[in-house]
Amino acid sequence: MSSASARLLKLFEGHRLTPTQRRIAHCMVRQAGDAPFLSSVELAELAGVSQPSVTRFAVALGFDGYPALRRHLRASAPAAGLGAGPAEGPVGGGEDDGSDPYNAYQQAVYAEIDNLRHLATLLADPAPVERAGRLLAASPVLPVLGLRAASAQARGFAYFASKVHADVRLLDEGGSMLAERIDGCVRAGADVLLCFALPRHPKEVAEALGHARGAGLRIVTVADSAFAPVAHPEDLLLPAAVGTGLAFDTACAPMLLGRVLLEAMCDGLPEAQARLEEFDARAAERGLFLE
After folding, report:
1. CA distance linking residue 106 with residue 41, whole number of Å
2. Among residues 254, 246, 256, which one has the least CA distance to residue 228?
């Protein structure tokens, strides 16, 4: 990755950008050498957004407006310009001509690889995941909460968990009935709730977790950060970063962490292997899968 692109990516790190703002950010990374010299109108045209969106983007980064952002980019550029410097790709590389050999799609993939490496580092201490697995395995009823962007993670976990756990209940729809469904899980014997919480964090998730705590449930949360807005000191939070290099977040690390948590839960269920074998036998009898 060129030094110009790297500086821009560093500038964008730590900011929660909307899909439109990310589109602008991607455009700037692709046009790293020219970015300090583009007017707001030119940048808007290149990114395919409105000029006010460019202004809001600059404000989201902490600047008074786009002119202040452009001054910052010009001031931080080396004498030879932002585009100067050798390319430094994650693997291999390209010509040492100052250009970035990796397009935006490749950069997003490499960013996810970094997220997975970070997750592997966190799992060097398996105690938190093992503890969470034991809690989930011991709960007679296991509610799994995930709204909006996190619904896919919750649904995937619930699908596989139901193969080994006697009673898994997916909570992937918000609304006025969510609290009632949580109460129903408590009445049925649940003592733990698993939550997948990913950006942008819906207000309903925080409200649902507050209701669950009030109902006496212990919370295990898979979130994008230990400092996610749904974090609570009483909860067991397992962090896994999301990728922000595309218009919409990528969640490879949270998905993998969910599978790791499934493995830990299976370790706490002595009958897990027998249930899996029973499912495989019935699936074969019914011809469920093409093999």
Report:
1. 28
2. 254
Query: Among 261, 239, 262, 264, which residue's Cα sits nearest to residue 251?
Result: 239
Tens digit of pLDDT at every position of the chain (291 positions): 557 777 888 888 778 788 888 889 888 888 888 899 899 999 999 988 899 999 999 999 999 999 999 999 988 876 434 343 333 344 444 433 445 577 888 888 988 999 999 999 999 999 999 999 999 999 999 999 999 999 999 999 999 999 999 999 999 999 999 999 999 999 999 999 999 999 989 999 999 999 999 999 999 999 998 888 999 999 999 999 998 888 889 999 999 999 999 999 999 999 999 999 999 999 999 999 996
Percentages (nearest 5) of helix, strand, coil residues in the chain: 50, 10, 40
Cα dihedral 184→188→191→197 (10° resolution): -40
The answer to whether the beta carbons of residues 285 and 169 sit under 8 Å apart is no
Please tell me whether residue 268 adopts helix, strand or coil conformation.
coil
Amino acid at 288: L
Bridge partners of residue 144, in order along the sequence: 170, 194
Reported pTM: 0.73
Q: Report phi then psi at 219, rounded to 5.
A: -110, 130
Q: Is 58 within 8 Å of 73 (Cβ atoms)?
A: no
**Burial track 91-120 (b if 16+ CB lie within 10 A, e otherwise):** eeeeeeebbbbbebebbbbbbbeebbeebe
List C-alpha distances in Å: 185 to 70, 83, 146: 54, 57, 15
The token pair that represents 106 in the structure block: 């490749």
